[in-house]
Design a protein that fits this description.
single chain, about 260 residues, 2 domains
């Protein structure tokens, strides 16, 4: 789902080229011209709907809604991946390029948690990314339809776009703290043995992402915060040593990244 960077592309995804004129005819022409972008908008709308249905289970089984969130997110990721890499090749170079795409990361994310016990925290990044992209494209659709008087809708959508950096930071924060949660869930019998290892692979891909540095930046911010707490005069020696050992352990697990 989640093609988060370049930010300009992220915020105006699929809505830069618009047919002339305004109104329903222009909207229809826009939809026909941008079928994949419109399909992405629809799958993200379904993702948001299923997330709400999971949190407020008034429309059926929450577990079913949880599965539908992951399936709709997988559909979104697959469509976005098709946009980024339209031709499939069976080569090492192709798969290396595939793993560099953010949408491939979240396709893997959906597969990892598809058959585990529901964890509400798992849905948080999916919801945030879907909300951000849905709002961006909805604003473009309102412009095409000429709904300039829909002030309430435009205000809410613009508010989401205005907070896009905080939304991406929050998603990265959840991505990081899901790692220890998968380990805890394993010991509680709520996950499989493969889940933490598969999720670690996902997290390394997110850390190495060329288009979205938020995960990497959040790791850096957390390290700075922990070092600050450890170096405070009032911090006990045993806690200071534990913090530095934890930092060294996590840093040793981080993949090498070439910043372009």
């Amino acid at each position: 789902m989640p093609e988060e960077q370049n930010e300009q592309e992220q915020r105006q995804e699929g809505s830069d080229e618009r047919p002339g004129g305004r109104g329903m005819e222009a909207l229809k022409a826009h939809v026909l011209e941008h079928k994949v972008d419109t399909a992405l908008w629809a799958t993200r709308a379904l993702t948001l709907l299923f997330c709400i249905s999971y949190l407020i289970p008034i429309f059926g089984n929450p577990y079913s809604s949880y599965q539908k969130v992951l399936m709709s997110n997988a559909a979104t990721s697959a469509l976005r991946l098709h946009q980024r890499i339209p031709s499939v090749q069976f080569s090492r170079e192709f798969f290396a390029q595939l793993l560099m795409e953010d949408s491939a990361h979240y396709l893997l994310y959906s597969i990892i948690f598809m058959y585990t016990s529901p964890l509400t925290m798992v849905l948080a990044p999916i919801f945030l990314f879907a909300l951000l992209h849905f709002a961006s494209y909805s604003l473009g659709l309102l412009d095409v339809a000429g709904q300039n008087n829909a002030l309430g809708s435009r205000f809410l959508i613009s508010l989401v776009e205005y907070q896009h950096r905080n939304i991406l930071r929050a998603a990265a924060f959840v991505e990081i703290f899901l790692m220890p949660l998968t380990v805890v869930s394993l010991f509680l019998g709520r996950g499989s043995l493969i889940t933490p290892f598969a999720y670690y692979r996902f997290l390394t891909l997110r850390y190495s992402s060329r288009r979205n540095p938020y995960n990497r930046n959040m790791f850096h911010e957390l390290r700075v915060t922990c070092e600050y707490l450890a170096n405070k005069p009032g911090t006990p020696a045993f806690l200071r040593n534990a913090i530095f050992r934890a930092i060294a352990f996590v840093s040793g697990l981080a993949p090498a990244v070439v910043v372009q």
